[in-house]
Specification:
about 30% helix; two-stranded antiparallel sheet; single chain
Length: about 270
């Protein structure tokens, strides 16, 4: 568990990771980004705001941990590489237990993950948004002083159309879109080692042109990543680490250039926990 139980949080930057639809690798990107930033010497936290589909704890190897409460605030679980994590899965008896909540209750949980958590001092708080553009996303944008949003998409016409909704929503909420991370565009042929395009449904354009934002990284489909139960940084292939580090570098540059001011301190704890 974390030893950061102070009543005031000092978080320099909040970066949301979003997609218009599920199944594009959004949580994987959020976890890789958080770990790559930590590997660059940054102090990092990750808020799993995907209440009905929380996968961050398992991906970071802390799925068996339980959440704690110090009497005033929720206390994040800390991964083996020092990333502070808060997720609804820490507060249910079994990770397979479904969270059958209506929108207002899910929105309240996200608000508490921000305002009632002892995050301490962080360089970056990564927020794994749920897919879509509903109540929870609206609450997250209104409650959290988001400095920028990273969108995740596969290079498909249907996906780009849906993800464009998330891009426009971020703009409506005055949150700069830092760029897009393209996922699963290619795989490596197991016989010849050459890249194979998995999608051909964006003829004549690219995912960054389709969405109107810069590309931060392109992460190929890899069976050891797609089938992994955990994405521990120390055991990741070196080329994936390099791609993740490049994504982190581009994200840091983009958020620095966005001109957004430093995130203010979270409000005083309200004395309640979800």
């Amino acid at each position: 568990m974390s030893d950061q139980t102070t009543s005031v949080n000092k978080i320099k930057r909040i970066i949301g990771v979003a997609s218009g639809k599920g199944g594009v690798g959004k949580s994987t990107v959020a976890v890789l980004l958080a770990q790559a930033l930590a590997a660059r010497g940054r102090s990092v936290g990750i808020m799993d705001a995907d209440i009905t589909g929380p996968s961050v704890p398992r991906l970071l190897g802390v799925g068996s941990f339980r959440g704690d409460f110090d009497g005033e605030r929720l206390v994040p679980v800390v991964s083996e590489n020092g990333i502070k994590v808060v997720s609804i899965n820490f507060y249910v008896n079994d990770e397979a237990t479904p969270v059958v909540w209506r929108g207002p209750l899910m929105s309240k949980a996200v608000d508490q993950f921000w305002s009632d958590t002892a995050w301490g001092e962080l360089d970056y708080l990564i927020v794994d948004f749920p897919p879509g553009t509903g109540d929870v996303q609206i609450t997250a944008f209104k409650s959290l002083p988001v400095n920028g949003v990273v969108v995740v998409a596969t290079p498909q016409s249907l996906v780009s159309m849906i993800v464009a909704k998330a891009v426009r929503m971020a703009g409506m909420m005055d949150a700069p879109v830092l760029g897009v991370v393209e996922t699963m565009a290619t795989m490596t042929c197991p016989h010849c080692g050459k890249p194979i395009d998995l999608f051909e449904s964006l003829p004549g354009t690219t995912i960054q042109d389709a969405l109107g934002v810069p590309k931060l990284a392109s992460l190929p489909w890899r069976p050891e990543i797609a089938q992994a139960l955990e994405l521990r940084w120390e055991t990741l292939p070196q080329d994936i680490k390099s791609l993740a580090d490049g994504m982190a570098a581009e994200t840091e540059l983009a958020v620095a250039q966005s001109g957004k001011k430093q995130a203010p301190e979270a409000p005083a704890a309200q004395g309640s926990a979800t």
